[in-house]
What we know:
The complex is a heterodimer.
Chain A: H1 3-16, H2 30-38, H3 44-47, H4 50-65, H5 70-76
Chain B: H1 3-13, H2 17-39, H3 42-58, H4 69-87, H5 90-93, H6 97-102, H7 114-125, H8 129-140, H9 145-152, H10 156-176
Helix pairs in contact in B: 1-2, 2-3, 2-4, 3-4, 7-10, 8-10, 9-10
Amino acid sequence: MNAHDQDRIQHLLREALPPIQPVEPARDLWPALLKRLNARPVAALQTVPLLDWALALGLVALVAIAPATIPVLLYYL
Amino acid sequence: MRDGESSVLDRFRQGDVDAFETLFRLHQRAVYGWVLRIVRRPDAAEEVTVEAFWRIHKAHARFDPSRSFEAWARTIATHAALDWLRSHRLERDCSAQSAVEASVPVAPDPAIAAEVRQKTALAFGRLPPRLRLAALLAVVEELPHKEVAEALGISVTAVKLRVFRALRLLRRDLQQQGITP
Lengths: 77, 181
C-alpha cells in the first residue's frame, strides 16, 4: 500500500466515522460508581473461570488414572 | 503542583474515598470525553467511564504521585475502553443512531456514496480491537501519534505500525466487497 492509497483510505475512514464532538455525560456518574465501590466483593471461588475448574478437574482425573504422569506434571510446573 | 491537589493525591493514594470523589469530579468529564472518542456511544461511554474509575480506585496504591493523574487515568480508561471494544463488535454497535448523534456534524463528501461509508464503518468494526483503537485515535480523531502512544502505553513506532496494518486490512476487506478506495 503506497502513500496515496493510505491517504485515500484515511479519507474514506474519516467520512465513514466522523470525529466525536466533546460532550459531558448525560448524568452524574458518581452514584453508579459509589454503588460499585460499595458492592460486596465476589467470593474468590466465584471469580475462577469455569475453564480453569474444568482444567483442574481434568488434571486430577489424569493423576488418578495415571499416577505415572505426576513427575511429568511436576517437571512442567 | 499546588498543595491542595498534592494533598488530595496523597489521600487518594492512601485509599481515601472523599479524595477519590474529588478527583472523580475533577476528571470525569475528560475521561468520559476520551472514552466516548473510542467507544463512540454515549451510553457505552458512561459504562466504561464508571469501569475506568473503578479500576483507578482499585489501583490507588500503585499511583505514582510524581506522574500526572490525568495521564494515568487516561491510560487506565483506554484499557477499559479497549476491553469494551473486544466484547462489543463495532459493526453491530457503532452504526447505532446514538453513535451518529455523538459525532461532529460535517458535510459528507458527495463523491463517497452512503453505502460505501456504511460498508467502511462495518469493515472497520471487523478489524482487531487493538488496530481499530490505534486507527480511531490517530486517523479518525487525528490525535498526534505521541499522545496515542502514551494512552496505549506503546511506542510511537508501534502506533504507526498498528495504524498502517489497520488501514491495509481495511483496504483489503473493502476490496473483497468490490469497493476500491
